[in-house]
Design a protein that fits this description.
alpha/beta, Dihydrofolate Reductase, subunit A, two-stranded antiparallel sheet, 10 strands
Length: 191
């Protein structure tokens, strides 16, 4: 059974974007790309909210074809083009788009079914609104939080809508030269 895994950059004070969605504070470099790429390669599905999906779709399908494409661009573009995509949206339609599934209702049942149909991870990239919906239903199995050394003071919070206590186990902590720290937490299955 696949796991639903959240990959998210977050400020030290718990925000994933500034008040107007700003992400110019996120620190990414080759070291972080290489580390994240190893986990990305283990996943068979990319999961997004509508806004993040549209942003990704405007760049990644052809990123490797650009004359100045970095190794990360080539690797992630190849991965993006090979995996299935799932988008959580009430307004978007996915009819006729290859490898795309749009979920707009019965979210818990759809996600549980999605997990059952794969042995690979399902990665959520960014997408704070979709992540909040999934957190509210306690559907996220693991958190990969890239904590950036900055205090934003305000913005879009990482955690919102959580209805029940969820115990987590820290399985890995990686310090990067940039000052970013990756914290990998797995949900503890109780019962």
């Amino acid at each position: 059974m696949g796991k639903l895994v959240l990959f998210m950059h977050v400020s030290l004070d718990g925000f994933v974007a500034g008040p107007k969605g700003e992400m110019d504070w996120i620190n990414v470099d080759d070291e972080i790309f290489a580390y994240a790429g190893k986990e990305t390669d283990k996943a068979g599905t990319a999961f997004y909210g509508r806004v993040t999906y549209q942003m990704m779709e405007s760049y990644w399908p052809t990123a490797a074809d650009q004359p100045n494409a970095s190794e990360h661009d080539k690797q992630h573009s190849a991965w993006y083009n090979s995996v299935s995509k799932v988008v959580l949206s009430r307004t978007m339609k996915g009819v006729g788009v290859p490898k795309l599934k749009v979920i707009s209702e019965n979210i818990p049942a759809e996600i549980i079914n999605l997990k059952k149909t794969t042995n690979k991870n399902i990665l959520i990239f960014g997408s704070p609104g979709a992540s909040h919906t999934l957190m509210a239903e306690n559907l996220i199995d693991a958190y990969w939080l890239f904590v950036n050394p900055i205090l934003l003071g305000q913005g879009i919070p990482l955690f919102s809508g959580i209805k029940e206590r969820t115990k987590l186990n820290l399985t890995e902590c990686v310090n990067f030269a940039s000052g970013v720290v990756c914290l990998h937490y797995e949900k503890i299955q109780e019962g």
